[in-house]
Every structure is written in structure tokens, then in C-alpha cells.
Amino acid sequence: MAENTTNHNGGMTNNTKGRPNPGQDGVGKSNMVRSLLFTMLVVCLAAMLVANFVQNKNGDAEKTEVPISEVIQRANDPEGNIAKITVTGDTLDITLKGQEQATETSRKDANGTLYDQGLVNHCEGMEGEELTNCEGRYPVIEYKEDVNTWGIVLDVALTVIPIVIIVGFFAWMMRQANMANNSSLGFGKSKARLYGPDKKKVSFKDVAGNEAAKQDLTEVVDFLKNPKKYEKLGAKIPRGVLLAGEPGTGKTLMARAVAGEANVPFFSISGSEFAEMFVGVGASRVRDLFSKAKKNAPSIIFIDEIDAVAHKRDARGGAGREDEQTLNQILVEMDGFDNDSGVIVMAATNRVDMLDKALLRPGRFDRHVNVTLPERKDRLEILKVHFKGKPVEADVDLEAMAKKTAGSSGADLANIANEAAITAAREGHKAISNKDLTEAFERVAIGPERKSKVMNDKERKITAYHEAGHAVVGHVLPDSDPVHKVTIIPRGSTGGVTWFLPPEDRSYKSIYELKDILARAMGGRVAEKLIFGKDAVTTGAGSDLKNVAELAKSMVVEEGMGDGTRNLVFPSEATGYYTITTGKPYSEKTAEVIDAEIKKLSDEAAKRAEEVLKANKVVLDKLAEALLKQETLEEAELEPLLKDAKLPTVAKLH
Ligand code: ADP
Ligand code: ZN
Ligand code: MG
To answer: For residue 199, what pLDDT band results from cuts at 50, 70 and 90?
Structure first.
């Protein structure tokens, strides 16, 4: 989508790339701790309530408090009026002769028995705490178990709370360790996540489109399900399957779907996790991961973003020693597989060109599955998957959305679907409307509308001419995509937006098309200059110029489209070659040549834009006026305004 919008004042906020889902267990663990703590709390509260209740029951009748010395004196008197003393812990409940219930109470010293304290010393002796042979002359002494419930609660609390705190603390530490550098605890233990058969299963049905990749992987599923079938025929079961494709195309999803389809455990780890480890930890994690997988065979090991550890060994000079160890360990483990180990290693990368060749040799990741950006019909399928279960209005046009989103990945589309639901919820709609969907699309592509951003009249006028400039140039040039929408409502970090949408998906772009893109990007600033004078240079065109510089550079360096360097490409940072002296992938002299070619392209673009706008000043004015009045113009509204615009011969390329 990036190339298809031309906006001024700040770049595309590219928040559309899908991030792989974080591990699922981590979340579960903290939930467990939380619910444990909560249960404890509930138990404690309940116990306290019960204790309170019991106490109230016991203490229903008011009793007179009597000093212990008086109790002892009266009890030792054979003629005294005490019938029974009930001892509960340190509490003495005294029942008088002729009474049913205790009416007096007293407390004994915490230490020592009643006997020690001289109570009923006429008795013969003691058995345990029981006085014996009192022969009915003295009060009956009854010992009750100390049901001081408050004490019990306190006891329980004192034992449980520290345990909870300690357990909680450790859980928290582990989580921190997992998140930060996953190393301070459990050195060398692979924290590979296990999506075993019991976890929420993903199947091929959840992966829309990409039929070719699914076809290839069906074979892998079959290997896992019926290894015997292949062994009998002497076929070598593949060990490594490499999923290659741009970010967000569903590689991770696809790998999980293979595990789901084959119904085998799935051990997943991300290459970037290795990169965060201490020296030596990466290799031992690999060892641990493979041994776990072998124990659970048949199973799948999935190494996501493997380029993080397995980049070309010369590409990072000495910096990658640790990664190299990790990579070597992966190779060693894969070489050590028996034919019948039943473990298949899958890996995903968006940079196959960056991978160490050793990884791609036979017996390692020798099967390649390309996961591609979805075509229009696949985009429709993906949208359908992500709109399933979401209530939508009848006017929601997924076909149109699929058409508009050429170049978007599955993750982008999932994001649009989610944003649409969020927008609908925010607006208080019962179901998602087509307007919510459009808003979501624009939000994902550029950022939220900011109606609150105040522009003064002068700024609005400049913005209107700027966007109109993009639109007129883009409309007039024959190899540019049609204008889809123009708006001067600020969105994300932009002051206004002009959208161009390709009528269909294309795999290649011609040099003419790219040059038209450069020119229409220049159209904004050139229009400002034409209307407000050549010194009225605003900051509004910064991102346009950056886009021009980037596109022109890639045309020269990567595509061999420089005028004087036609068909020559230059090694770039992406390929990982640097010359030591310049820090660039080429010499200073070559760098000058490249810079000159880039300048030539952008000068030409500015020149063409200027010719077009000079020749169509009337159309430019009309469009800018309409924008000032309406703020947003859709395709249908643009057409009558633009239809008189003409292509001047000077701006023609072919
Ligand atoms: P990758 O690993 O290639 O970067 P992911 O597998 O992480 O991409 O995809 C991110 C998200 O995008 C997925 O969780 C899914 O919601 C969505 N997605 C991507 N491709 C597809 C697809 N073909 N069908 C359905 N959803 C998809
Ligand atoms: Zn612009
Ligand atoms: Mg991924």
C-alpha cells in the first residue's frame, strides 16, 4: 500500500505488518499465579467469616469476668459454688452449682497447667492434663480442645501467605527472565513452546489462499502421519522444510497448521530469542529443544525467523560468534537425525538470500515452500476468514476491499478486519458497516483521522494545492495508477492524502511506471511552488521527497534503471557486502556515480511534474477549490474535475 499513497508531512505509519503471536504459555502462567492468589484470598476471607460466626455463637451469653485467684480459691473449697470448669486453651468457663450454662469466665496464665497454679490441689494426681481422684468434692474440670478459630486463621495465614509470596515472586522472576533475556533461570533449557495436540489447533482451513504452499505441506503432513509408507519404499523423509515469504504472509500460521493437521506436538522457538541469550546458551537450548522433540516424536520443531541466527557467516564479521555456535548446533542436530526419528524441522524466514548456505544443503532445509503475498481472490478468502464470526451489515463489500488491498499481506488484512470491528464498536454500531471497513483500511494504511488538528486558512490552502498537485500529475501521467481519493483531513502524521490504487495486481513495474510515481510524488511540492512562489517552500513535502529518494535509489542500485548505469546493479546493505574502507558496499567513486544517477531521476521527476501542472493550471485550481470546500473527494467526484487535464508532450516518456 505504501507506494500507492502520496501524502505530505510525515511518512507512512507502517503499522500494518503482523507481529508473530507471543508465546501462549507465558500468559497462562501469570494467570495461574493470579488465580491462585485470588483463591487464597477467598479462602482466608471465608475462614475469617466462619471464625467470627463461631465466636459469636460461643459468646452468646454475657459472662462475668472473675480473677483467676478467686476462681482457684473457690474451686479449692469443697463447699464452694463452682460445679464445673471448662478449660478451653487459656479460658476458663465456670458453671455454678445448679446452673446449666457457664455464667462466669476467667483466664489462666498462658504457661503452666491449672494444677501447677494450685487449682484443685486436693486431688491425687494428674494424667496428662486431667486431674484424677477428685472424688466429686471439687468442681468437674473439663478440657475442651482449643478451637480458637481466630488463632487457626492466623496460623494458616502465617503459613500460606509467605508461600504464596515466594511462589508468586518466583513466577514473576521466571516471567521477567523469559521476557527480558530468558537466561537468568534455567540456563540452556529451551523455552520452546509446546502446542501439543491439546492446545487450540490450527488447520489448513484457517490459512486462506496459498494453495501451492498448502499442497507442498500436505506431503509433510503425510510423512508425519504415515512414515511407514515412505520407509517401505526406501524414501528419505525430509528433515527440514523452509518456509520463505514476506512478513505477515502466514508462515507461522502455516507451520502451526501442519502440526494441527498431522496432530503432532509442535515445538516452536524464534530465532530472535536466541539472539538475546548469553554466550553458550543458544547452543544448549538447541540441544534441549531437539531432545524434547525426539522424546515426543513424531513431532515438529519450528524455528521462526531463522535468519536471526542463520545469516551468512561472513555477513556480520566477528559480531556473530554466538549465533554461529547456535547455527552449528542446529546443523549438528539435524545431521544426527536417524531416518526414522520422526522429527521434522520447519523454519521460517523472510530473507532466504541472507541464510547461510550450509543450512540449505541436502539433508538439512532442502525443501523450500514459498509463501507469497495473496492475490486478489486469496485476499478475499483471507478477509472472509477474519470476518467470520463478526456481525456485518449487508453493505459490507469484501470484494471491493480485496481489490483495493493489492500488496497487503494476510496480517495486514487480519489487522483491517480487527480495526473494522473496533471502529464499529467505538461508533456504537451493532454490526460492522462498509464505512467502518473503509475507515479501518485507511487507518491501517496511514493512521487515524485527526479532525481536531487545526489548520489555519493559509495552511489549508497550501495543503489543498499540494494534494491537488499529486492528484493532477498522477491522473495525467499514463503509467501511473488512477487516483482513488483525495483528502485534506489530517490522518496519522499526514496533513492530507492522495491515494492511488492499481486497477489490478501486477508482479512487475516498468521503468515508466516508476518514473510516473516519482513525478506524482513531486507533484505536491511543485504545485506549492507554482501557486505560492518559488520561495514558499513548506515542510509539508518532506515525506514525499524521502519517498522519491528511496524509490530513486532502489531503481538505480537494485533495478539497474540508472540512465548512465542502465542494467548495472550495485551490492546493497541488504546483501551484506561492505567494503572496509568506505563502510558502503562500493567505492567512493561508485557512490558518486550512484548519487548523480539518483539526482538525475529526481530532477527529471520534478521537471515532468512542473510541465504537467503548468499545462493544467485550470484543473489544478478547480481541484484545490473543491478540496477546500469538501475536504474529501472520492473517485466518482474526482472524475469530472480531472477529465479535462491533458498530458503535455514535454512530459511524455514514450
Ligand atoms: P508470518 O509468520 O509470515 O510473518 P503470521 O503467520 O505470523 O505471518 O501471520 C500473522 C497473522 O496474519 C496470522 O495470525 C493471521 O491472523 C493472519 N494471516 C496471515 N496469512 C493468512 C492467511 N493466509 N489466512 C488467514 N490469515 C492469515
Ligand atoms: Zn505530498
Ligand atoms: Mg512469523
So the answer is: low
On whether residue 152 sits in a domain, the answer given is: no
What distance in Å separates the CA atoms of residue 485 and residue 501, rounded to the nearest whole number? 9
The answer on 216 and 136 residing in a single domain is no
Pocket of ligand 1 (CB under 6 A): 18, 20, 207-210, 245, 247-253, 348, 382, 385, 410-411, 414
> CB within 8 A of 412, min separation 6: which ones?
1, 16, 17, 18, 248, 405, 444
Nearest CA residue ID for atom 27, ligand 1: 410
**Grid cell 512562489 — which residue?**
533
Identify whether residues 618 and 472 lie together within a single domain: yes
C-alpha cell at 523: 507533484
State the pTM of this model.
Answer: 0.63
DSSP 96-126: ETT-SS--EEEE--SSS-TTTTTTTTTS-EE
Give the tens place of pLDDT for each residue, 242-278: 999 999 999 999 999 998 999 998 898 888 887 666 6
Same domain, 461 and 609: yes
Residues 343 and 220 in one domain: yes
The string of pLDDT tens digits covering residues 17-50 is: 333 333 333 334 445 556 666 666 666 566 666 5
> Nine-digit cell at 397?
463489500
Q: Compute the distance from residue 525 Cα to the ligand 2 centre, in Å.
A: 7
- Residue 633 near residue 595, CB atoms below 8 Å: no
Query: Rounded CA gap, 247 and 260, in Å?
Result: 22
Q: How far apart are CA 594 and CA 17, in angstroms?
A: 31
Last residue of a domain, one of 339, 370, 401: 370
User: Domain holding 474: CATH number?
Assistant: 1.20.58.760
Residue 574 covered by a domain: yes
Taking the C-alpha atoms of residue 457 and residue 442, their distance in angstroms, rounded to an integer, is 25
- Cα 71 to chain centroid distance, Å, stands at 73
Any idea how long the chain is?
A: 654
Interval between CA 506 and ligand 2 midpoint (Å): 24
Residues 129 and 245 grouped into a single domain = no
Do 585 and 474 share a structural domain? Answer: yes
| Count of CB atoms situated within 10 Å of the CB of 32 | 11
Q: Are 615 and 646 in contact (CB under 8 A)?
A: yes
Q: Which residue in 198, 163, 186 sits closest to 36, CA to CA?
A: 163
Evaluate whether residue 500 is within a structural domain.
Answer: yes
Shortest-distance Cα residue to atom 11 of ligand 1? 411
Flag whether 28 is in a domain.
no
User: For the chain, how many structural domains are there in total?
Assistant: 3
Decide: residue 188, CB within 10 A, 0-12 exposed, 13-18 middle, 19+ buried: middle
Evaluated on CA atoms 310, 311, 312, 315, the torsion sign reads negative
Q: Are residues 600 and 527 in the same domain?
A: yes
Q: Do 257 and 346 belong to one domain?
A: yes
Q: What is the widest separation between alpha-carbon atoms in the chain?
A: 134
Classified as helix, coil or strand, 86 is strand
Distance, CA 261 to ligand 1 centroid (Å)? Answer: 17
642: containing domain: 457-651
Q: How far is CA 441 from the centre of its chain?
A: 20
Instruction: Tell which residue, 147, 75, 171, has the closest CA to residue 114.
Output: 75
Task: Identify which ligand lies nearest to the alpha carbon of 486.
Answer: 2
DSSP annotation of 374: P
Q: Which of 354, 370, 386 is the last residue of a domain?
A: 370
The CATH code of the domain that includes 329 is: 3.40.50.300
Helix (H) or strand (E) holding 615: helix 588-615
